[in-house]
Design a protein that fits this description.
alpha+beta, two-stranded antiparallel ribbon, about 170 residues, about 30% strand, about 20% helix
Length: about 170
């Protein structure tokens, strides 16, 4: 903790519509952000110290005030999906041509209006791709595509197919 110093006069100025203060070099703060608050008629300026890891972050959070009832998540009624809305035309493609690059592509229309959901999972090489458990997933990406984007993807795949076929 820095040693207390004697008060030093500093110059105030305007920057656009805000008031600013020239901070003398001996009072220089680390970083590029500060926290500012009032205590009586004193203005307190402190550097923002960002946590460097998860433990520091959780420690900072614990120091904060307890959540008030209005800060908690509201209760949301969970309505079950109607059978007619279930995704009947889900397509799952298993990709295992190269053992160390196994994966699954799942295509589902209608999760969001007017969109096609494309989800991919990388699967660990030692996991049976037919029954992959969650702990066998090495990566996941989910995209929502418009019909136009899906058509552009089809064109790109067709071009790639032609290129591979012509190189055989």
């Amino acid at each position: 903790m820095p040693t207390p110093t004697r008060p030093t006069e500093a110059k105030l100025f305007r920057s656009n519509r805000s008031q600013a203060v020239w901070i003398p070099a001996e009072f220089e703060l680390l970083g590029d952000r500060v926290m500012i608050h009032r205590e009586g008629n004193r203005l307190i300026i402190e550097p923002v110290i960002r946590p460097k890891n998860l433990v520091e972050l959780l420690t900072e959070w614990r120091k904060g005030a307890a959540l008030a009832p209005e800060d908690l998540f509201p209760t949301i009624e969970d309505t079950p999906a109607q059978p007619e809305f279930m995704f009947q035309s889900k397509t799952r493609l298993l990709c295992n041509e190269i053992s160390y690059r196994k994966g699954v592509i799942e295509i589902t229309p209608g999760i969001h209006d007017g969109c096609i959901n494309l989800e991919t999972w990388g699967i660990h090489p030692e996991i049976d791709i037919e029954r992959f458990p969650d702990d066998g997933i090495t990566g996941n990406t989910e995209l929502e595509m418009s019909i136009e984007m899906a058509e552009a993807l089809i064109e790109a795949l067709q071009a790639a197919i032609c290129a591979v076929q012509s190189s055989r």
